Amino acid sequence: MVNISGNKVIGSLSQLTAFLKIGGIILFAVITLGAAGFSFQPDIGADSSEMLPGSGFLAGVAIAILSYKGFTTITNSGDEVKNPQKNVGRAIIASLAICVVVYMLVAFAVASSLPLERIVEAKNFALAEAAKPVLGQYGVWFTVAIAIIATASGIIASVFAVSRMLAMLSEMEIIPHRHFGMPGSVQKHTLVYTVVLAATLAAFFDLTRIASLGAIFYLFIDIAIHWGVFRNLKEDINANGAIVLTAVALDIIVLGAILILKGTSDPMLLLIAGLGLLLTFLGERLFLKYHRTMEKNSNSRKPQNMNHKM
Length: 310
Hints:
By secondary structure, the chain is mainly alpha-helical. The chain has helices at about 5-35, 50, 55-70, 70-75, 85-110, 115-120, 125-130, 130-135, 135-170, 185-205, 205-235, 240-265, 265-310. The radius of gyration is 23 Å and the shape is globular.
């Protein structure tokens, strides 16, 4: 409903929720650091080398990448940005800088107050657990409130960006599209498809699996895009080949780690991810082949029709 309401409503709501969640998390982290005496030394606790092997650390990096992927929402919403040639780049740098500051504050706050085994046990409430000496049960309620705001705003922003990207690809005839009797623009239709797909994933998978699937798909897409840029667009956009190939190599390392880790702990997830990638690739390939055939046949008929009229 929010995304259908228009760009002004989305923009105002996004600014409000961004202020609330960023301000709330920073406040919470500062309170927790204060309770720990502003110590930036981690609480070692048990031997962390046994609890988090090298592959586990790299797999954690893969999940953490999703925490920074929000900047792609900016690029996907470029049509809505004033003076996009300059402001899109500035917005990306600003968003990454804010994320780094917020995440580092949270990491220091939790790590300086809780040992690793307590962090693993607390899971999503690690920050509330770290702030318990000061806030008590209020810390849990505060964490839940911030999590709800952050989740809602993230969903709104992602749906906004993805629906517009899908609409653009539909209009370029790169992906298939059907109206199914729905009124309105293509973007409104892709908005519905995005919400339905997200709801389906939420109904059948827990958040851990959704995050892992998202990391796997995102890394595959990132590798494909970087490789495509290197092979086909490097000269056109003056891309630095070394930087592009470095990004591909790092993506492969992180992707390999998460595949190894999930292969031992949740092989069904890899089967689902592989099936999803296979169906997407085959479906897109068949669609493009069919579309090109139809376009070729249409072009071949035009001269014949013109000669017949003459």
